[in-house]
């Protein structure tokens, strides 16, 4: 059974940092691409960052230079380091683990950036 679990969300002040984790089990994790999405209230889900099975990364323009995605295959985990957080980063963050047409979602973790 495949499980994807996000963690690390919380309340942080503007300018602060958080590190989100996405841990997967039940799959050969190193073979999967991993995507971080976010969804703010009353907004569409948007892609934030991705990392391929080979380690190539991509970022949305809104987070370039502030967020860093990385993976540690030995721990079946992908991280999203978020620095210089802004109120507009407030959202539920979701991890999607995907290989070809097969994908798995986690339950999400909430990030609130507020003073």
Keywords:
115 residues; mainly beta; 0% helix; 4-stranded antiparallel sheet
In short, what is this structure?
The protein has 115 residues and is an all-beta fold. Helix content is 0%, strand content 54%.
Descriptive report:
With 115 residues, the chain is mainly beta. Helices cover 0% and strands 54% of the residues. It contains no helices and 11 strands. It has strands spanning 3-7, 10-12, 18-25, 33-39, 46-51, 57-59, 67-72, 77-82, 91-99, 102-105, 109-113. It starts with a strand and ends with a strand.
Q: Gyration radius, to the nearest Å?
A: 13 Å
Largest sheet: 7 strands, mixed
User: Which whole number gives the mean pLDDT?
Assistant: 97
The SS-based structural class is mainly beta
Strand content: over 45%
Order of helices and strands: EEEEEEEEEEE
Q: What level of helicity do the residues show?
A: under 10%
Count of individual helical segments: 0
Record field, number of beta strands: 11
Based on CA inertia axes, which overall geometry fits?
globular
Distance between the termini: 40 Å
The stretches of 5 or more residues where confidence is low (pLDDT under 50) are none
Topology:
Blueprint (H helix, E strand, L loop, with lengths): L2 E5 L2 E3 L5 E8 L7 E7 L6 E6 L5 E3 L7 E6 L4 E6 L8 E9 L2 E4 L3 E5 L2
Parallel strand pairs: 2-11
Antiparallel strand pairs: 1-3, 3-8, 4-5, 4-9, 5-6, 7-8, 9-10, 9-11
């Amino acid at each position: 059974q495949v499980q994807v679990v996000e963690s690390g969300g919380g309340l942080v002040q503007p300018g602060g940092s958080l590190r989100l984790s996405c841990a997967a089990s039940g799959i050969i994790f190193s073979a999967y691409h991993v995507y971080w999405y976010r969804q703010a209230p009353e907004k569409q889900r948007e892609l934030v960052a991705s990392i391929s099975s080979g380690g190539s990364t991509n970022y949305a323009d809104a987070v370039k230079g502030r967020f860093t995605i990385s993976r540690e295959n030995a721990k079946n985990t992908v991280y999203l380091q978020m620095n210089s957080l802004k109120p507009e980063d407030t959202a539920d963050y979701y991890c999607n683990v995907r290989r070809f047409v097969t994908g798995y979602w986690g339950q999400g973790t909430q990030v609130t950036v507020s003073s």
